[in-house]
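Review form for a predicted model. The reviewer records the input and the model, then writes brief findings.
Reviewer: anonymous (R2)
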Amino acid sequence: MTSRTADFETRRAWLDSLEAFLTDFEPQLIAAMQADFTHRSREECLSLDLGTSISQVRYQRRHLKWWMRKRYVLTPMPFWPARAYTQATPRGVVGIMAPWNFPVYLAIAPLAAALAAGNRVMIKPSELAPQTSKVLAEGLAQYFSAEVVQVLLGGADVAAAFSALPFDHLLFTGSTDVGRKVAMAAAQNLTPVTLELGGKSPAVVMPSADLDQAARRIIWGKTANAGQICVAPDYALVPRDQMDAFVTLAESYLRAFYPKGAASNDYCGVISERHLARMDDLLTEVEARDVKVVQLSEDNIPDTQRKCAPALVIDPPLDCAVMTREIFGPILPIVPYDTVEQALNFVKTRDHPLALYVFAQDKEDQDLWLERSTSGGVTINDTVIHVAVDSLPFGGVGASGYGAYHGKAGFETFSHMKPVLHQAKWNAMSLTEPPMTGMKKRLMKLARKLM
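Model under review:
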């Protein structure tokens, strides 16, 4: 692939083509996602994958000209009359390794940012969503030449080879364990990497929270896409004296959202038999330890659908797998705490999460978590939705990843912000040239004071 610079009109045309692909291939993409998950409602496909993708493309296109401008900076007096600025230039060829849980959005959003920044792009979608990956490959090939966008299909062997290519930038979205391998492979080429990983994102219910609101929004965030979201609330921390009320509310919203249990049309399937077995293992372990589990019915699920019913796990032992591993599914552990300090320590002594959800009506409670915790992103009094705000950067910290994209952050991630200095014919830099006379020394001393 070539890395020649693309001007504004070319980049805008690329984004137009990307939106046209999403619009024209909407039926095929929806059908493919439904096949990969064995069941996924059309509305969920539209809202969580296609709608968010189109929104990101449009946001990049709307702001592109402004982002491409020269960004002038102040020049220190000793360098006058030089002019200094940064110029956003393409990195070259960008690699994108997309996961299966949002197989369209998590391929298209970084693609939009990379194209807006003027790069050529290679995409390796997940083999766990083969139908969607196939439509992405066939569809994008109709709108872009192979010199601009390529999609490579294949399994883990292809992914390993892909991560070892000498890209100018590589973005990986997936598990922390695989992210480490990708970073090590990229390091051999000194390829800069953006890692979008996961982890156990807590939902903290503070004493001042609206308990009904908290239960409703946590349950929505936990069960959308059957919990297969990197920023899904992994567990809930709830004041001990509010545990019973919270569990009752959470169960009521589970049943209200999915009146037919796992057989409900709005409830998504699990991506593979292996992932389904992992959910079963998590629940089997806590049930064997006499932990209370509230789970919706799995009766009447069609044989063609692969589903795990949403479940609440009440006060599990902290050494259970549901509390030591990222769940990435529709199981919500609910953990009591006695003091706010205890809740803070619970979160702070674990890996930094990709997202933190704080439910509190008092501003002091909200500020407490903003000031004393570390996470990739924070949403107050809701879950998940900060990811869809195009103007916010999205990324992790520590074990949940590094680097960010979305909106302007995406454009800058895939750009080299090249520093440029224009010096005038007549300037004071001759003072630095030898021989250093007494007058030059005195003027240099004055210049240092002015810097």
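Findings: The chain is about 40% helix and 20% strand.
Further findings: The two ends are 45 Å apart (CA to CA).
Recommendation: see findings above.
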